[in-house]
Amino acid sequence: MNLWQEYKRPVSVTEAVQALASAPGPALPIAGGTDLMLDLRQGNHPPIHTLIDLTFVPEMSALELRGDELYVGAAVSVNRVALDPLAAAHAQALVEACNLIAGPQVRNTATLGGNVAHALPAADGTIALTALDAQAEVAGIAGTRCMPFTSLFLGPGKSAIDKTKEIIVGFYIPIAKTLKVSQTFRVSSCFKRIMRPQGVALPILNCAVWLEREGDLFKDIRIAIGPGGPTPFRATEAEAFLRGQSLSDETFARALDLLLEQAKFRTSARRASADYRRHIVGGLLKDVLDTAWSRAI
């Protein structure tokens, strides 16, 4: 039995969106397809009439500096991000997250856009992009628009993007402060996770931190934890407290208390209980924070 009836290869974002809109039956975009193809083969996805292959759209396969931002196309493979020197220089947390997604074969095929499009609140790429304050470019029949990255998510597995009418084109990561950094200000980021031994499933817990350091003080900081809620979680209360503070045992303890008050950890039968996540999040956050702090010297 055919898994689809038509297969199209647009060469522009406009053509891709038009192909979605004009398909005579259910249509979906595909790039890596590491999850979608399995779902189709195993009967876990409704039948598809038309697949729209996005890997021939140059805009969606670009990874480059654009002014004061690092642009990563949604069809860029996870492994390409992990190995790219621009990403390493300006988005180290994203590089570290991509290095931990699945196994080597999957990373060679899976795309950053696919990692995000599943709308899982603990997806590694998603948590890194949240801490890096990314913007997402989304295209539909009405045109393209940029939106805050966290606006892409409605709940676990629920994306704000209608995959039958819209596509995620790419992500913009601000790097202006990194490029203009002086001898006083330093910027860095870090991503780590706690996972089961096989290392290819979703993490028990993951964490990304981006910070700007002024001497021995936090000038600015962003902390993302997954899964800290139904959508990608920012520990905004802990962030607000840490700004203007130094890194000490006392300030960390207060920041952790604020994070635990704000986060909504949930129990997963296959991964961990909410109580266990609350118990281990402090150690993970301390490790990530210490690493990012030491990098900003």
Structure description:
A hairpin with a 2-residue loop joins β6 and β7 (about 145-150). This protein has a five-stranded antiparallel beta sheet. Strands 11-12-13-14 form a four-stranded antiparallel beta sheet, sandwiched between helices. α5 packs antiparallel against α8 and α10 (about 235-240) runs antiparallel to α11 (about 250-260). It has helices at about 15-20, 35-40, 80-85, 85-90, 90-100, 105-110, 110-115, 125-130, 175-180, 235-240, 250-260, 275-295, and strands spanning about 5-10, 25-30, 50-55, 65, 70-75, 135-140, 145-150, 155, 160, 165-175, 185-195, 205-215, 215-225, 235. The protein folds into three domains: about 5-55, Uridine Diphospho-n-acetylenolpyruvylglucosamine Reductase, domain 2 (2-Layer Sandwich), CATH 3.30.43; about 60-175, Uridine Diphospho-n-acetylenolpyruvylglucosamine Reductase, domain 3 (2-Layer Sandwich), CATH 3.30.465.10; about 185-295, Enolase-like, domain 1 (2-Layer Sandwich). It starts with 5 loop residues before the first strand and ends with a helix. It has about 300 residues and is of the alpha+beta class.
